[in-house]
């Protein structure tokens, strides 16, 4: 019999996530400290919103969860769902998701998650459970190029960045994520248009602007640096322009899926 245990230890979820993702689309080979930093410090999963599945004394599955507040909207994200390979197709994933949805309902939250587009079994599973695709996430890398010696990008602040945020950003690219990663902020302005980026190393965590002019923002990015990494909603005008400018797009693309709080349309 499978038992669902909430608020597990970090060691329990680490064991299952690393074993359950052994055949995943991307490499998740991590030490315990790397796992804690990536999934908890950066991704803002919390053990109190997570659970493991026990069969006897063996941990056979795990689900991670985190909660953020965006204005008046409470958002609960499923940060990972993994089952030990030998225990798949026995309903363990359904039990874990059902338990998480009880937590989501208690909070009156919107339930979100990301699924790699090629992962058709996972996509079908979440659709069966009432999730729908909200938007697509594409991952871009800028081509190698020279950077002007007199860039128009100037230091900015977290406040400058947050003032331009509209709607709900991707979970891993919002103001919480920028703060967790100790982001640096830069502002670019030209003829009344301006944009602000939050950066960690060569990764652009997010870019916000007072305009939807993709050409302006793309031009600004060309002055920011070379081999930059950026995740974008595929329908955003900037994404379309970066395609045209020859930015490389990863073959790993994701759907962001959502299940609205009970009572919402």
Automatic annotation (TrEMBL):
- Domain of life per record: Bacteria
Any Pfam family: Acetyltransf_1
InterPro entries in the record, alphabetically?
Acyl_CoA_acyltransferase, GNAT_dom, YpeA/RimI_acetyltransf
| Occurrences of domain N-acetyltransferase (ranges) | 1-154
Q: What keywords does the record list, in alphabetical order?
A: Acyltransferase, Transferase
Q: Which residues form a coiled coil?
A: none
Q: Name one GO molecular function term.
A: acyltransferase activity, transferring groups other than amino-acyl groups
Write the protein's name: GNAT family N-acetyltransferase
**What is this organism's lineage?**
Bacteria, Bacillati, Bacillota, Bacilli, Bacillales
């Amino acid at each position: 019999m499978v038992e669902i245990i909430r608020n597990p230890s970090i060691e329990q979820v680490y064991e299952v996530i690393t074993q359950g993702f052994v055949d995943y689309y991307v490499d998740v080979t991590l030490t315990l400290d790397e796992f804690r930093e990536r999934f908890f410090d950066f991704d803002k999963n919390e053990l109190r919103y997570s659970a493991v599945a026990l069969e006897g004394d063996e941990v056979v599955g795990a689900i991670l969860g985190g909660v953020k507040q965006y204005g008046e909207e409470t958002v609960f994200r499923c940060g990972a769902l993994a089952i030990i390979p030998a225990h798949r197709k026995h309903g363990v994933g359904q039990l874990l998701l059902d338990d998480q949805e009880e937590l989501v309902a208690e909070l009156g939250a919107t339930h979100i998650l990301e699924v790699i587009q090629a992962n058709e079994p996972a996509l079908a599973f979440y659709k069966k459970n009432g999730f729908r695709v909200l938007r697509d996430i594409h991952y871009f890398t800028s081509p190698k190029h020279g950077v002007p010696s007199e860039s128009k990008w100037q230091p900015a602040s977290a406040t400058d960045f947050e003032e331009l945020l509209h709607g709900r950003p991707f979970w891993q690219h919002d103001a919480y994520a920028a703060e967790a990663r100790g982001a640096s902020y830069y502002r670019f302005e030209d003829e009344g248009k301006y944009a602000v980026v939050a950066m960690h190393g060569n990764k652009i965590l997010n870019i916000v602007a007072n305009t939807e002019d993709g050409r302006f923002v793309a031009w600004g990015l060309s002055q920011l640096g070379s081999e930059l990494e950026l995740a974008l909603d595929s329908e955003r005008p900037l994404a379309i322009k970066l395609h045209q400018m020859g930015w490389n797009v990863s073959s790993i693309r994701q759907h962001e899926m959502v299940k609205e709080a009970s009572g919402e349309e």
